[in-house]
Design brief:
The structure is a homodimer. By secondary structure, chain A is an all-alpha fold. The first copy, chain A, has helices at residues 17-31, 38-44, 59-79, 86-103, 105-113, 118-133, 138-169, 173-185, 193-197, 199-204, 207-224. Chain A is flat. Chain A binds a DNA duplex through helix 2.
Amino acid sequence: MPRKNPSPDKREDALSRERIIEAAITLLDTSGESGLTFRALADALATGAGAIYWHIAHKNDLLTAVCDAVIARTLQAAGGAGAATPHATVRAIALAVFEAIDAHPWVGSALTQAPGQLPHVRLLEHIGQQVRQLGVPEATQWVVACTLVNYMVGVGGQNAANAQFARQEGIERDGFLASMANTWLALDADEFGFTRSMATCLRTHDDRADFLTGIDLILRGIATED
Amino acid sequence: MPRKNPSPDKREDALSRERIIEAAITLLDTSGESGLTFRALADALATGAGAIYWHIAHKNDLLTAVCDAVIARTLQAAGGAGAATPHATVRAIALAVFEAIDAHPWVGSALTQAPGQLPHVRLLEHIGQQVRQLGVPEATQWVVACTLVNYMVGVGGQNAANAQFARQEGIERDGFLASMANTWLALDADEFGFTRSMATCLRTHDDRADFLTGIDLILRGIATED
DNA sequence: ACCTGAACACCGTTCAAGT
DNA sequence: ACCTGAACACCGTTCAAGT
């Protein structure tokens, strides 16, 4: 009777792309972006470092695959909801992606570094279908869908960077924002008047709400188009 | 009479933060993101690798500083224009940043990896001032300015990633897009209907124009707000 | 105060050799 | 066909030692 514990003791199944991707996900979630190493991954899989190269071309390939696995699941889960209007569906998709990046910050940076690859294509497809539903004329569907996707990925990347910075600094989000707000307040009053006046907003803002407001802004811009 | 050639022969001035930053910029422009190495940088400055650490805390510090130098110059040059309307000024700033990233792709990824740092603050300030001019109510200035900045940085990061990918693949932009378009056309017809129909757009689109259309969408969303 | 350069503790990737 | 693990060619960073 084979043991069911897949811990780093000994391998029971053969290696496979899927097994590697799953191990990479848990490794990334556990030790962060810098924790994903071919050596550490090989350890977790109870194999040699070079073995991975039989299934994965190079580290970027792995990163994209791992990102795609999360995005695919996220979109699948979000698609099931079936919101009332295209507008609401776009919002639901955007929020789901935001939550996924919040839970796995490394997805944000992977997404930023692999434009046009499969994870991106999935986003474009899901968003694009709703853009069609919105009645956007065919000639502008491309640019509208791209704007939404670019915005989503852009914010996601920023949040990922924030999370990674806070992690390696060992700081909580609140402390991180508070110290940044202080830095802003110490800026030159003439040159950085606007930024200084936004220091409180920085400290008290809600990432999620702001992100969705941005989505709404773009959607409203679309609706006004003629 | 001292020689005026600052080539990698021998150093004449003392090292300084500015000299290091300038050398890093030319190195990045010449050899790309992966070309910026403390060893290569030390060579270019005719010094030892460790000397740089007297002036720069760590590589991320250098990257942010180098990014900020470009952004500061870009915004200064763009600010001089003095466009007629706030809308036009936002467009001008956005375009200037786009061009800067196009000329120095590494600025795009540096920008993505340093949220809240000085380069970001500069963008926020310049955009925010125009958001005020647009008459956006105080309560929503924060989220509006952030949306614009996030979008700009997001698109910039994507373009940087594209440029870097094309560089290391040794491919031109056109060939890169053409092969990606073919990949899209080979996707499953049911699952990726929208994406397939956009393959031609991918191949023929204009990055700059699409980017500005996105800015316009957001600005129009703001105008419609009430 | 500032610089030098060897040394340390890592990386991704390759590849002969095994099964 | 698939795996092993040592070896290669790098990294960022540190630090005793120099000036």
